[in-house]
Amino acid sequence: MSRKRLQRSKKKLGQAPGSIIYTGERTKDKLNIEAFDFTQENYSEKELQHITDCFEYKFSNTVTWINLNGLNHVKDIEALGNHYELHPLVLEDIVNIAQRPKVDDHESYLFIVLKMLYYDDRQNLTSEQVSLVLGNNYVISFQESEGDVFEPIRDRIRHAKGRIRTMSSDYLLYTLIDAIVDHYFSVIEILGDKIEDLENQVFSASTQQDLSIKIQDLKREVLRVRRAVFPLREVINRIEKNETSLIKNKTLTYFKDISDHLTQVADNIEISREIIGGLMGMYLTNISNKMNEVMKVLTIMASIFIPLTFIAGIYGMNFNYIPELQFKYGYFGVWGVMILIFLGLVYYFRKKKWL
Amino acid sequence: MSRKRLQRSKKKLGQAPGSIIYTGERTKDKLNIEAFDFTQENYSEKELQHITDCFEYKFSNTVTWINLNGLNHVKDIEALGNHYELHPLVLEDIVNIAQRPKVDDHESYLFIVLKMLYYDDRQNLTSEQVSLVLGNNYVISFQESEGDVFEPIRDRIRHAKGRIRTMSSDYLLYTLIDAIVDHYFSVIEILGDKIEDLENQVFSASTQQDLSIKIQDLKREVLRVRRAVFPLREVINRIEKNETSLIKNKTLTYFKDISDHLTQVADNIEISREIIGGLMGMYLTNISNKMNEVMKVLTIMASIFIPLTFIAGIYGMNFNYIPELQFKYGYFGVWGVMILIFLGLVYYFRKKKWL
Amino acid sequence: MSRKRLQRSKKKLGQAPGSIIYTGERTKDKLNIEAFDFTQENYSEKELQHITDCFEYKFSNTVTWINLNGLNHVKDIEALGNHYELHPLVLEDIVNIAQRPKVDDHESYLFIVLKMLYYDDRQNLTSEQVSLVLGNNYVISFQESEGDVFEPIRDRIRHAKGRIRTMSSDYLLYTLIDAIVDHYFSVIEILGDKIEDLENQVFSASTQQDLSIKIQDLKREVLRVRRAVFPLREVINRIEKNETSLIKNKTLTYFKDISDHLTQVADNIEISREIIGGLMGMYLTNISNKMNEVMKVLTIMASIFIPLTFIAGIYGMNFNYIPELQFKYGYFGVWGVMILIFLGLVYYFRKKKWL
Amino acid sequence: MSRKRLQRSKKKLGQAPGSIIYTGERTKDKLNIEAFDFTQENYSEKELQHITDCFEYKFSNTVTWINLNGLNHVKDIEALGNHYELHPLVLEDIVNIAQRPKVDDHESYLFIVLKMLYYDDRQNLTSEQVSLVLGNNYVISFQESEGDVFEPIRDRIRHAKGRIRTMSSDYLLYTLIDAIVDHYFSVIEILGDKIEDLENQVFSASTQQDLSIKIQDLKREVLRVRRAVFPLREVINRIEKNETSLIKNKTLTYFKDISDHLTQVADNIEISREIIGGLMGMYLTNISNKMNEVMKVLTIMASIFIPLTFIAGIYGMNFNYIPELQFKYGYFGVWGVMILIFLGLVYYFRKKKWL
Amino acid sequence: MSRKRLQRSKKKLGQAPGSIIYTGERTKDKLNIEAFDFTQENYSEKELQHITDCFEYKFSNTVTWINLNGLNHVKDIEALGNHYELHPLVLEDIVNIAQRPKVDDHESYLFIVLKMLYYDDRQNLTSEQVSLVLGNNYVISFQESEGDVFEPIRDRIRHAKGRIRTMSSDYLLYTLIDAIVDHYFSVIEILGDKIEDLENQVFSASTQQDLSIKIQDLKREVLRVRRAVFPLREVINRIEKNETSLIKNKTLTYFKDISDHLTQVADNIEISREIIGGLMGMYLTNISNKMNEVMKVLTIMASIFIPLTFIAGIYGMNFNYIPELQFKYGYFGVWGVMILIFLGLVYYFRKKKWL
Questions:
Q1: Does the model's pTM come out above 0.90?
Q2: What is the ipTM of this complex?
């Protein structure tokens, strides 16, 4: 994980600031460009072939959503950036997938970076960077590869469900962020299940297997989710507070709603952290309990049979004169003594609750 | 627990914002509507049959408390919301029981979400969402199912006990919140008893049973209470500070009192957390102490009888010529030596305080 | 402890706000009323028989200190409260001994709640609630039962020692708080001794006795002291900052002095917490060290005698043909071999520093 | 480490403030002075022989970067400082390599201290102090010894790559800091690898070797990186906020970019700390697991053979009358009993999952 | 330690505020009074015999430094205080050595309390209270007993080294504080060495000796240093920020320098705390590792010899008919079997890496 996250440093070290270099691993053969253009009455949905096809929307009266997939096509992204007058550092941040969630207010547009989180097929936590540019009448979204998180939004635009067609670009921005944040809940949910699973494993742990590395891994996972969620909360709070003409008062209520959701997610993460924090201790007590059990078996077996063996040893000695050996029922007498000792020790261990 | 808390995500994922969907599990066949309408002199108490029956109170001169039970009746709640001009996101929050305690100031009304906490019959901590809407002359309260936490308040209205009949709707709001917060004290009390119980169990722990999962569960319980209390304290503080014409200066003193109570509860929770935080360590030392005891028994038994058995073994050898075997009192001499060794070892272990 | 602290909830649940109910356990047959009335030149000291006897001081020109003992006499306290125009919530707080230290500014008077701490005869930490009302020319103090913490102040009034007779009621308030805070130092001191004692016990711990519960109890004690001291510091800071005409600038320097003392006490508490926090770990290492010692004795005894017993066993076998048995000095040869093995193992354990 | 860091105290104790004394260990025979002087059109690059050679740049119209290597040449640095009118305390700080990253605004110039971090050939974390002075048209940088961190910047100046030649001295300052901060990423990366390595070692730990000191050392390393990064973040934040005419608005965006990078680094450090924090616990559970395994082997061996040996001992006794000894197949019968006991115990241990 | 720190409470309990009582243990027969009086051109250095001898400096034009040693001479200090018009609470604080570092601005003078820290001959951390009063043209310093921390300053005054003779009394104050703070570095250094020593001891710990108390003691030592340093940093920050005419702008730069130094010291303390925090865990893993080693020796010895002894026991039985006993080479055959078992077990333990 840590290696992937930091690859940029290797590729970029020594580059001039504003150099636009893709730092991710997922590449696509072709840049996917999707454009939704709508007013309250109409909407059009197009798969664009060339980056220049989306230049026309800059000054249209309609609300436009341009969605790009495939950050490895840096040339096209640079062309788009130049046309829409985005700052070089913004373009650098879009293709550098190691960004921390943040918002930059560039007066004529708002630039937001956030992380889409999901569990892939093999239950690995995957984090994908999504950049959003909010202009007066458009939103441009940049994704590493296709995710279908936005599918319900496309549907709502197509069928004019909810308010989306009646509102302006800032509401569109809100729905995109909301879709991503809603997915955090399912991530948190899976995480919660994983923690409960691990807790049960730890509790019933047969000592065959070392669970400490699993605990440590889960801790790491929670920290990664935390890293996506907490800065985003700051981002949304800044959007709520900072006055920018790009986001209308009417829409602010909706951003407050996202903020509430993020606080809920954040609460869950903090609780998860506390629970995981206690897991290692729980594991340790569990191992110690198991050891206690092992020790008890040993102690009971040894404590009972060592004295008995000693007695047998006594009468195995070859002294010329050992009076007991001559007794007729000496052998049975010894058995009697041994059984008494045996019962005494069993009683003693019972009283100590070891048996 | 975590599953219940997060169910909303499954049901709601991909829904347009403002969709009013009940996310709880408790359903009622019929929506209970209860209306208290009072002035200093008179009061009426009605069980309403239909949601439209409570529309009339919107512009009355009296103070009205409408209490609704059964959040699964979303249609009715929507109808009420439309009549009382509540924002769609407010209605969404009312029926989405995964809310964090919060207050939203919508100018013409104040919207408050909080959590009612109690231990059910099987001593499980139960959390129920209560939403409160404070209008100029009314308070509407929304509950998942009937709780009798508000019974004393009904009594006070009926018999004009205390100030309640002489004050306006903001004081009514205060009494409702106060009733819920007062219940936190009994939750905290039970929690304190549970911690003490567990502490005693841990202290006297026979190693038969693993208590670490109980410690972890109790920790979770405290975290859940914390999650209800701490945000509510922020809510009350915001009510105290933010100036809203809906809450009169005279009533603010009472909200300050709630704030004091919540701080007391919060103090108790933090102390509980610290105590629980020490429990796992206490448990570990206890297990280790037990193991020490087991080890000592083993060590004493083995250390005493192994050397003695060795001596018996010596004289069990079949060498042709072992002079001691011929001694008349050889056997008794060996016994003497053994008893000396035995006493020596007992003395040694006594000195070490192992016996 | 937790039970006592929370009793109020049981008695009060469902009561209207402002209900004046004593929640403590200590009751007195008779309400003690003590009145000191003084100017720079004169002073009078009276034991009042009836609550109405202290009504006259409300508008006198002299400085008056009325000290009440016995919070179970709620009727009298209510009568006093009505005469001195105290808010019902203030009266409720006075007799509800579960208050957190706080200050309320009611314009015509200042209401302060704080905790008197001391160790009783059996070295149990005892916390007693003291409420103070500062009026223009009087201070009224409410105590659960007689404590002699204020005795030195009575002396100073009687003999006009220090500045007390030359200053107004705010300075009197200061001296009362100062007397209570000064007592915190002796509590902290005893606590420090207790921690050192426990540390020594843990260090030299014979494993007979489980100290973890003592550590946990001491932790609880520190948390209780903390709970009295930290909010009081906030209280004093608020008095220092908030401008109230009741406390003169000249007296503020003295409150700053209390604040300094409380910071010292708070520092000590935090250090105590850190030290106690380390105690459980120290105890665990100590137990583990002890176990190591036990294990070593076992290992040394077993490792030395088990091989020797094996050799004895060899020559105890009854094979027809065992050549060594025929050797003249076979027996002594075996002894030689055994002694060599014994010395070898002793040397080995010496080298490992186990002996 | 700690010794190196604090050497200054020994050398400097008792010196008058403003005494310019080099506290580092790395010395150079000759002070390296390198001067880059450029405008958008031209640039010159010189290796200066004498400190006075760089006096001329003070009032030139071009942008100048003077880079000095070898802080042990305090006389030269003092001469330079006097010419460029630097405060004596600034000069003291330049040669005292124990500084914490900081920025001082001296109106006519800005003084910044920061730490260059890298891993040397033997993978030891090395920290080198770099001081930067930003004047109106120049930047002077002071290094302990040559580091080639700035090489890419020299290249950019030479070949007019990026914006560097078109901007003023504040942008030059930015590129220098940016180059250092970029290197933090590779430090963080190596640190991440080290942590993963150690985690794997801990996980698979053979008990031959004590890893706790390695964990402690790694912790120390993270704390050292933290100490370089966190104060620098404050420094950059202060530059962003504080208005100084030396840094133009246009350049502030770039400083914001550094701030973002530092926050990323800081996030990584905090995650590293949490992971390392869990390592000791993980190690302890691992050791305990290993001990459990050892104990099980002992317990199984002892529990099986001790009872069997006891039986053998019984029939090794020399009583005159032991009936079983006379049985024809007594010997085989005993073997049968022993095998049954053996199988019973194996079954028991299998059921307990110890085998 | 805790006892010394809190002695004041015993002596002072019940005293009127402003009572001037020395609470320290170090007493001097005679109060040492030393006066340095200087201008840029001249200086005089006198050992004063009587406290009244230093009254004359109050209104002189020169800068005067009066240094007093021996806080037990409270009468003299009171006389001095009255002459220089110091507040009674200030005098109380000077002789009460349990003060926390603080600054009080009394308009006509500034009162500063701080702690001088050093390790005495037996390497015990010693803390001595130093009080400083800054007047318009004088500084009065109060020490418990002579420390030679100020010797370099005396030298600088005598030989007019540095700026000291050219500056006013605020600069003198700065040099005194600076001298004390500089000593913190050597305390930190020794502390660092102690931690490293202990770390090495813990790492190589033979289990003979319990190091947990040493860890706890070192923790306490760090906490004591922290207690001296952190409040002093606040003090210096307040001096920097609060505008007082007693400290000139020109001197503020120097106080900022002290602040930087204190932040460095504080950083070191925090790192020390983290390192010590890890020590107990490190110690525990170390003990557990040692125990593992002990257990392995036991397990190997027992596992090898117990089965062999069992075999020897078998052929020690006295059954009439044991066929193997008759075999000619039965004895050697048994030896062969035993050696095979021995080798098998050795191989097994080798494979497990226990040997």
A1: no
A2: 0.81
